[in-house]
Amino acid sequence: MKLLAICGTITGSKTLAVLNKVLEEVKNGDPAIEIQLLDMKQYDVQFCDGRSPDAYTGDTKQVIDMVSSADCFLIGTPIFQGSITGVLKNLFDLAPVSAFRHKVMGFIATGGTYQHYLVIENQLKPIAGYFRAYTAPSYVYVHNDHFNAANEITDRDVLDRISYLAEELIMMQKALK
């Protein structure tokens, strides 16, 4: 099983820190899972312009291929202006719909207000529904206050939610295989 963790931002470091913590829990739960991290900061991805996904080249093609070859997903985004990042939306636009169909998606988000967790419910889950993906019941929203100065998560409840999400990703993907 190949889990692709997507860090859907080109700024900041908190989202990646949370993704890495979930991936650590996944590895603890099942060391056999192949994990691949797609950190969008590391790629120069073109804007979606309506071409077939096969027509892109370079980093854009590499990113599309990574998404297409995954068995399940852990998707992370900071919340900016009450929404997912443009980087993540562009990735969803570039990838073929079939890349996500009947695959498990888990979500994490970071933000500066406590209400921004609703973006997962009101934006990410409907996108997963459009793709006909299965969504893990748990998700993790981490507020800036949940991090210490070293960018480590210090809130016990958040750490518990991270564990639950990791368990659900493993269990759901194994059940669907």
Automatic annotation (TrEMBL):
Report if keyword Oxidoreductase is assigned: yes
Q: Please list every transmembrane segment annotated in the UniProt record, as residue ranges.
A: none
For the keyword Cell inner membrane, the answer is no
Chain ranges of the NADPH-dependent FMN reductase-like domain: 1-146
A molecular function (GO) held by this record is:
oxidoreductase activity
Keyword line: Flavoprotein, FMN, Oxidoreductase
- Please name the InterPro entries in this protein's record: Flavoprotein-like_sf, FMN_Rdtase-like_dom, NAD(P)H-dep_FMN_reductase
Protein name as catalogued: NADH-dependent FMN reductase
Taxonomic source organism: Paenibacillus validus
Lineage of producing organism: Bacteria, Bacillati, Bacillota, Bacilli, Bacillales
